[in-house]
Amino acid sequence: QVQLVESGGGSVQAGGSLRLSCAASGLTYSRYCMAWFRQAPGKEREWVAAICTGSIATYADSVKGRFTISKDNGKTTLYLQMNSLKPQDTAMYYCAAAIGNMLYLPRPMDADEYKYWGQGTQVTVSS
What we know:
By secondary structure, this protein is mainly β. It is 0% helix and 51% strand. The protein has strands at residues 3-7, 10-13, 18-25, 32-39, 46-52, 56-59, 67-72, 77-82, 91-99, 116-117, 121-126. It is globular and about 45 Å long.
């Protein structure tokens, strides 16, 4: 089974930076996407960024230019470098994984593609 464990969340002032990590286990697939989602109280779950086989990264408009998603293939770890943080970025952040095959790569922005989820890590940005 695939297990995802997030870490690196915390509290930071506006304009600061945080780096989130997601350690994956049981992800023995050659083609897949991994992504970060976030959800603030009273708001819908929001897709933040994704990176797929081939290290092609995509981002939500709200974080473009500020966040960078990356992965460490050797350690099967996903990262989210968050710079220029805003109070609006405050949320629980979740990592997720979507499995593909030789002919299909999951749609990176489609939440329904992601079958495996971590428990989340809290990010709080103060003014």
